[in-house]
Amino acid sequence: MLVPRPSGTWSLLRVPMLPARIDVARLQARTGRPVVHLDECDSTNLIARQRARVLLQQGDVRRRALPLVVAEHQLAGRGRLDRRWRSLPRHNLLFSLILGPDLTLVDAPRAVLAWAAALAETLDVSLKWPNDLVDGDGHKLGGVLAEHEPGPDPDRVGLLVLGVGVNVLQTEFPRLPQATSLARLRPRSVFDRTELMADLVRAVDGVDLAAPDLLERWRARDRTIGRRVRVGGVEGVATGIRDDGALLVDGRPVLAGDVELIGAR
């Protein structure tokens, strides 16, 4: 791009090229899901929840191919505890899956942990309870936000929206010293965002929620258990997770909260 100089001459300004957009046709072919692709939105979870409400009104959600909502940029992305999730346009993965598992509401937290474990396995990273995607030093490169849209049965899942954010190509995170990305972890690797998103969606869709060892996959990727932690006003050693997904801190169950790791394994 040419820009004028004060002297009256012109100077060539190099404008960095944005990474390629998500290839929607390839993503649909690999996942078998209809894709709602947006250049920009407030939140993919917000759009997905609106779609989920319409699907529930139409009924028969167990037999439908449920949508995948993808954004190149979010203006009001949220993580757990309503934290903001900021991302450069076309650098990272920002998507929400609509899921229709045949589950009771009591079993839903276990399912979310299992889906987070599938994401961690695909990315070859670790997990911090309940569903932060982290590197070996605990730096966060992604996370999951699950939200429920109720159906006709108040005791069972209507539809679940699983929002996923993964830092892929972004390498600078001002005022976020604990953030990282795949590009920072593996600087010599080349990342195709479309292929990576398809791999993650297929991993989530492939989880067998009826497996008797459902949470073992999460435990295998965990870096919380055995550490001294602070969460929800409780401080102590994280000793395990219950079958319902609650974190045990010195034997006391914690159902929700943001874990701060304050001691070594």
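Above is the first protein from milestone M3; the second protein from the same milestone is given next.
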Amino acid sequence: MKASVWQTPVALISTSTSPFFGPSRSSSTTSRGLPASNATAARVFNFLFSLLKSRRSVTESDQNLYQLWLRAIKNLHTNWRVLHVTNKYVAFLRGVNLGRRTVKKHELIEVFARMGFGRVETFLASGNVLFESQDTPDAEKIESALGAFFGFDIAVVLRSMEELNQFAQNQPFAAYEGTSDTKLYVTMAAAPIGGRLEGVSGVAGDFDLVDICERDYFTAAFRQEDGRFGSGLDQLEKRFKGLSITTRNWNTIMRILKKTSA
């Protein structure tokens, strides 16, 4: 059975209680949360109501006890929500849909959904997978799951939406105009770059190395006579032997941010 495009493995909690003593209704609904939390909450309130109904009169202490129970349950639910906040991520896949390395969107979605990620979808191309996760995702585990499903290795570079937003806030290409003769790229690595780009600044008329961060670098590539952009960029990639990297057009990053903020 194929998985739905939209999966939400998060704790969804809805609580309705009466703030006053007397006849009241309390419900607690939890999806993928504490085991049997529904039944536990129901038993707590049933016990409390049975205890109070057995008395001939209701004292002020009874009312205070009731209010304390309500606050305790509400605090429990509030803390549960905080502990289960989901974060948005993008898995950038390298080298898919080249030659026989074909992957289909619905199959990618199925693999990620099976791993427990929520709101899985591909964007623009199969090489960009958007998803949500309560825990920090592990790129190696995703690579293993993809390899087992498709039968060939697929390198994965992960970035959180927070990190992509930081890209935009830093404005690395503020000094460059977007023209048909210039393309702007961000190359993302699976681990710190280290000194691999030490001493590199670019090649005049071919490409500029605009900025280098811990795990990313930004380049501006210029159109060549043969129609290619930044032919010297291939030489940069050779410096990353043994480290997974993948490159995206800057416009792709901006479109992902726009989509997720809508």
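Note on the second protein: Confidence is low (pLDDT under 50) at residues 1-38.
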